[in-house]
Specification:
It is a single chain. By secondary structure, the chain is an alpha+beta fold. It has 5 helices and 15 strands. Helix 1 runs antiparallel to helix 2, helix 1 packs parallel to helix 3 and helix 2 runs antiparallel to helix 3.
């Protein structure tokens, strides 16, 4: 395996706290330089990134147990960088290479998938990431998840696990039948199942329905109160689905008061007062 690799380690003088250390493991791979996170312990993250690069290069040149040990130390260093908040494109790319060399294809695929969808890339960098992703595809079971609306967090099998990303999303999973749990603020949770084998991809699409919003209707003068022609009790909160609605107040001896209002997905609780002037008040006022 190592005979097919071309190694290149470029070290440049440090001009600031930003490290200019690059590792390219294949002739076609991009030269990666450290990009410091905006809000992380930059110096510690830089040193860890450099340490990971040294172990990665040493591991790829070594054999047997030393190779495994060096690659594991590289993996540990890159994971520490991420724990410091420095989840940059170069860290993610080198993490993917390390996992691939450790023969952990599912995790490597997901690292390169994150690299391709999560960062602004040059055409050359994108091509390098896509090449590595496609090389791993025959070794993993892949699920592509889309949702309406997009931007839903995706969890696999269990709600208590961290999300694997947001839709649209392509991830490698354990082969078999997987339960996908999609969630987005302001929408009801959606679930789907996908059965997938190694070397294949299952496509899943789910629609998230807007979650109801609590709306309280106030009618100081009393009377008959209806919401979309269904009678409701004034003063009580009602769970209202997002969309357009009509509330109507009928008081004996007075013209009826009718109000059209909109409830947006994820809106805060609303208070709507109907009187002779149909004035809305309170948190989350209706228009």
């Amino acid at each position: 395996m190592l005979d097919a690799l071309t190694f290149l380690l470029r070290l440049r003088p440090a001009l600031s706290a930003v490290a200019l250390v690059a590792v390219a493991l294949l002739a076609a791979a991009p030269v990666l330089t450290w990009t410091a996170p905006a809000e992380a312990q930059e110096e510690e993250a830089r040193l860890l990134f450099e340490r990971g690069n040294r172990h990665l290069t040493a591991g790829l040149r070594a054999r047997g147990s030393r190779r495994t040990r060096e690659l594991q130390q590289a993996l540990d260093a890159y994971l520490q960088v991420m724990r410091l908040g420095a989840r940059t494109r170069n860290v993610v790319f080198n993490l993917g290479i390390t996992l691939q060399e450790l023969e952990r294809p599912e995790e490597a695929f997901n690292a390169f998938s994150e690299y391709l969808r999560g960062f602004e890339l040059s055409p050359e960098d994108r091509a390098a990431g896509e090449q590595r992703l496609e090389a791993l595809r025959p070794q993993v079971a892949v699920v592509r998840v889309e949702s309406t609306p997009p931007g839903a967090e995706v969890r696999v099998d269990r709600r208590d696990l961290p999300p694997r990303g947001t839709t649209p999303l392509e991830i490698a999973v354990a082969p078999g039948t997987r339960r996908l749990i999609l969630s987005r603020e302001g929408y009801q949770e959606a679930r789907a199942e996908a059965t997938v084998a190694v070397g294949s991809r299952a496509d899943v699409s789910a629609t998230l329905e807007p979650a109801p919003v609590s709306v309280q209707f106030i009618a100081p003068g009393g009377g008959r109160l209806t919401l979309d022609d269904a009678e409701i009790v004034a003063g009580r909160a009602v769970e209202v689905t997002p969309g357009s609605h009509v509330v109507r107040l009928e008081v004996p001896g007075a013209p009826p008061v009718e109000r059209r209002f909109e409830v947006a997905p994820g809106a805060p609780p609303m208070v709507l007062e109907l009187s002779a002037t149909a004035v809305a008040q309170g948190e989350g006022r209706a228009p």
